Fold these 2 entries.
Entry 1:
Amino acid sequence: MYTQKSFVLKPADADKKWYLVNAEGQTVGRVATKIADVLRGKLNPKYTPHTDSGDFVVVVNADKVVFTGNKLDDKVYYRHSGYVGGLKQRTAREQLGRQPEKVLMAAVKGMLPKNSLGRKQLTKLKVYAGTEHKHEAQNPQELKL
């Protein structure tokens, strides 16, 4: 009797590509789901859930993302200094004004696995507020959303 063996992608065999995403006018959650799929490698036909088989993603114009509804004023981002009473909070409007990269990073982080693999996949995401980025040498391909 013949049994077929399962294919398991080794991290060394995964060919990593670079993609460029223009987030101008895109809804935060919708663009974050597409980015998370690319980071995890779900668009790759050799996708293996427990292996880092995803690609690199460079996001530009993160300061021009769009929230639907009243989320600009209702959504709150929290951070903690580690000291007693050190809980700080900002609305999405304030966060977009001060650190727009962190808005997209937080959205994508919530869609990745909550383990060491997810942390490793998040390092392949590069987010920039403007149109300039320092990854021209990698020749990123435009990713249509």
Entry 2:
Amino acid sequence: MTRKKIKNIILENIKTLIGALLIAILIRSLLIQPFYIPSSSMEPTLLVGDRIFVSKYSYGYSKHSFPFSPNISNNRFLFKRPEQGDLIVFKTPADNRTDYIKRLIGKPGDEIQFINGDLFINGSKVVREETKISEPIRCGNFLLETNTFVETLPNGVKYLAVYNKQGTLKNTKKYIVPKNHLFLMGDNRDCSKDSRFLDDVGYVNDLNLVGKAKIIFFSNDTKKGSLLKFWNLQNSFRFERTFKILK
């Protein structure tokens, strides 16, 4: 084989790799992106070790739709406003780099407050029904004894939320969501850094939205074994969560 042919083969392979990389970046930026759940702030909806697909097109696009959030624009294009109850991945306002996932509770202009342990939106108490679910809920390396409720938002969206039996958040100030911002909370109410903590997360700007969580495609309990220990997957792999639609 001549040197020229070898050079042509190398160039063709490089072109193929570049083309594949560009396609992957476009899919990741414009259509769908996988994310790993590293914390327990969204239990019981999302567990540590869940891997989810997030749609990038649900709320339109901003600089945070692309890898490394290039500073190309401070606008959002093709914007579709999220709905209460959506599970949203966003860049935390603290550094505009770290990905968080929380549930949308308040939209611009809404008033959010906890009174005697109950969640109020615009002065109305969010309806909740206690369940008989008694599974322990994680909070870091600890297990919490919690009460599990089915909460129903004003638009009819239902989800499970858990509150610590001891030391749960009873009362807060009134949060008024600013224009072009959202108020998001974790379903694990007493183990979530979210919009209630104004110095850490606070209100999330529309620009910081990354996408909407759609489905769990894989889940492995890291407490029971690493993926590298494939011989132990039968104990750590959560088969029942595979391809679970998120609500």
